[in-house]
Amino acid sequence: MAEPAPIRLLYFAWLRERIGLGEEEVALPPGTATVAALVAWLRARGPGYEAAFGTTAPVRCAVNQEFAALDAPVRPGDEVAFFPPVTGG
Amino acid sequence: MATIRVQTEAIDVGAEIAALTAGRTDIGGIGSFIGTVRETAKGRRITAMTLEHYPGMTERALSAIAADAAGRWKLLGCTLIHRVGPMAPGETIVLVLAASAHRHDALEATAFLIDWLKTRAPFWKKESFADGRAEWVDARETDDLAAARWGPQ
């Protein structure tokens, strides 16, 4: 049976700095179906992830380049990005 | 209809207005917003501002914002150009142009475009200070309020 497609994770601004990388591909852990479940899994991956996600500072998310809420679904092959609230302009 | 661009090079405002209006005689007015790097933040002098963005999503978000504006006002063209990378105080960060037959559409669309860009396009500012420290800029609640006055998407 073919492995499910990995998900592409992107991190921006201070999340990128705390995690120490801007982009990675991971296999979606079994039973991980939402952004919130993905965040819970990521937090446990190491101190950098804990520093990025275990904070009270607001973190926003996009799934496949559209803003998404914590309860949004995540599927194999998706592109999921995490970043602080935007400050352009 | 919209010109959407993210670039590291300096923004040439005159050239962009010329490009928007080239060969056109139906335009009656162009609204513009030119965002520049302010030299102080929270009372401290900054030496540089660095803009990061999410390539791909940025262009999608800017195109969606431009399309929304075109649905609300009678526009004959618009330009959204955002600079990324390092820049110095006084330099232009963002250019918004909205062309219409009449001033109200041009001016209101311009205000809408910059308000929505500030809250819906994935850009992040980092300020570098004279003491060598650098800090990511926090989002402002006032920006959300400014965007909210235009109603829901």
Describe this structure in words.
The complex is a heterodimer of chains A (89) and B (153). Chain A is an alpha+beta fold and 89 residues long. Chain A is 26% helix and 24% strand. In chain A, strand 3 (60-63) and strand 4 form a beta hairpin. Chain A starts with 6 loop residues before the first strand and ends in a 6-residue tail after the last strand. Chain B is an alpha+beta fold and 153 residues long. Chain B is built from four helices and nine strands; from the N terminus they run E-H-E-E-E-H-E-E-E-H-E-E-H. In chain B, the strands form two sheets. In chain B, strands 3, 4, 6, 8 and 9 form a five-stranded antiparallel β-sheet that branches. A four-stranded mixed β-sheet of chain B has the order 1-5-7-2, with helices on both faces. In chain B, strand 8 (123-129) and strand 9 (134-136) form a beta hairpin. In chain B, helix 2 (57-72) runs antiparallel to helix 3 (103-120) and helix 3 (103-120) packs across helix 4 (141-148). Chain B is globular.
